[in-house]
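Z., the sequence and structure:
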Amino acid sequence: MSCDLHIEIDRAVDAPPTDAQFKDWALAALEGRRDEAELYVRIVDAAESQDLNSTYRNKDKPTNVLSFVADLPPGVDVPILGDLAICAPVVQREAVEQNKEELAHWAHMVVHGVLHLLGFDHIDDDEAEEMEALEVQILNKLGYNNPYED
């Protein structure tokens, strides 16, 4: 399994996880689901997250993670999976509000975002149940608790 991970961090973001941690989390989500992948992770501030969320989802507020699946033309066989935009201030705030270890919440957002890039979703109850079970399984394998338990 190989993962070419490109990480870009907004200068305003304070103390994000390491590149190695991001790669470990992405690889865990990809394991057994894709042999080769290239993805881009941009750690953004609240203003950029709000702009992206408003532009692409018509929701005028920052959000924790946005996934953008690569839209490749037919016949182009490259391993580009897509892009993640993770909002550091939202992840940090949610970790405090939900009484979670901040690093565990970062891991959850990467795993969640990569699963979206792989085609998983949580629009209806059955999809949500399947996706959440995968997230829990992957995070447990990484040594993190179930993010959906209080």
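The helical segments are 19-30, 46-57, 88-97, 102-117, 125-141. The CA atoms of residues 7 and 41 lie 5 Å apart.

Let me know what you think.
H.
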